[in-house]
Design goal:
about 230 residues, alpha/beta, 3-stranded antiparallel sheet, 8 helices
Length: about 230
């Protein structure tokens, strides 16, 4: 059995496996791997979308599942030297408290060293803020309602909801169709999952879908590009 820390009673606070790994009590799924979470982010979401090579002023990234902000901060590091702006929009239904985010990010010293401005903004209740070249907008609420109402498009998508087996709503065919509808021509997606129904949903929505090598012990991930319409 793993020891759990129930000291923070906020309804969106995670439990802490071995005092290190934040686990969603709502979805019974960890937010990341402590052993290689940052490397996995870089392998799956950045490299899976051809980043940082594609980053340029005006580039637009969108994400399903903000979580601890690890993907955002890894992207911020990848933007070093870029004048910006790079737009980063994330859709999150159950935001974590700032104290839990700070505790989670402490697992990754490279990211933690860059996290203070984000943590101050988050603790102040800000969900739209600027970090260097990154213009961040975290859209609160159920993505099934907020994504259809979004008035922009992404050049790259990070699909990072909890496991499709635990959180199928964030991977439904209807939502994958909305992802495609909000993708710029030639835009891309990447995700850690290779679940068949997710891949089919993305393919039916208009993406070319490639099963690629996953990170660490995960054999496969998925990535792809929006196909040109005829």
């Amino acid at each position: 059995m793993h020891a759990q820390d129930h000291s923070n009673l906020d309804e969106n606070s995670p439990e802490w496996r071995d005092g290190l790994t934040p686990v969603s009590t709502r979805f019974d799924d960890p937010y990341f791997s402590v052993s290689n979470g940052l490397e996995e982010t870089r392998h799956v979401f950045l490299a899976g979308n051809g980043l940082p090579a594609r980053l340029a002023p005006g580039f637009r990234i969108a994400e399903l599942g903000f979580g601890t902000g690890l993907n955002m901060l890894a992207t911020l590091i990848a933007c070093d030297g870029l004048p910006g702006p790079v737009h980063y929009t994330s859709f999150e239904a159950f935001p974590l408290p700032a104290a839990d985010i700070a505790r989670a990010l402490a697992n990754f010293p490279e990211v933690g060293a860059r996290a203070d401005p984000f943590l101050h903004a988050w603790a102040a209740g800000l969900r739209r803020f600027t970090l260097g070249p990154l213009r961040v907008d975290v859209v609160m609420g159920d993505a099934r309602a907020t994504l259809p109402a979004w008035q922009s498009h992404a050049d790259a998508w990070y699909l990072d909801g909890f496991s499709p087996a635990k959180n199928p709503e964030l991977w439904s065919p209807d939502l994958m169709a909305e992802v495609a509808r909000h993708t710029a021509p030639g835009g891309s997606f990447a995700t850690y999952t290779a679940a068949g129904f997710v891949r089919r949903g993305l393919a039916n929505a208009g993406f070319s879908v490639i099963r690629a090598p996953g990170h660490g012990r995960k054999r496969h991930m998925s990535q792809g590009q929006l196909k040109a319409t005829q």
